[in-house]
Amino acid sequence: MPAKPTSVKAYLDGLPEDRRKALRAVRAAVNRGLPAGYEEGVQYGMIGWFVPHRLFPDGYHCDPLQPVPFAGLASQKRYMSLYLMCIYADEKHRRWFEKEWKKTGKKLDMGKSCIRFKSVDDLPLDVIQEAIARVPVEQFLARYEASIPKSARRGQQATAGKKAVEKKAPKRKKSAR
Predict the structure, then answer these.
(1) What is the count of structural domains for the chain?
(2) Among 2, 114, 126, 145, which residue has the least CB neighbours within 10 Å?
(3) Alpha-carbon separation of residue 44 from 18, 32, 49 (angstroms)
(4) pLDDT digit string (tens) for 139-149?
């Protein structure tokens, strides 16, 4: 993808037809299950669903200018990826997800939140849709806030970052002139 897309349509339009078709199918499943309050757009160079700043003004603790990411969908060089932060942030939900996926007989290629796939046929879209639907915004934000370091909560990351820089900066010795 040569240029950074600024819309979901532009992202999809920049893909080869087979990838575009696969991502459209996954996107449709996510959007069918998406609870009220989340928004879709382009985030971190991929299709993303997130908690908008109007619901959580503090934004993402790693980059407060970004809304809190909930899910992402990307076309990588050798595979496609679906990122489910709702799975990453909740071990009970992850166990449910893995159990339901296993029932389908499909192979799960997953990291902490990233599901890698080469074809939409690799995915049980109904399980993905249900995994999304099971996490309303309020519940996701409660888990999100509980999972981030205390130093990064509610605008404290600037202070924490400054302290970390101060600790790492070597002290200069006074020269004896």
Answers:
(1) 1
(2) 2
(3) 22, 23, 11
(4) 999 999 988 87
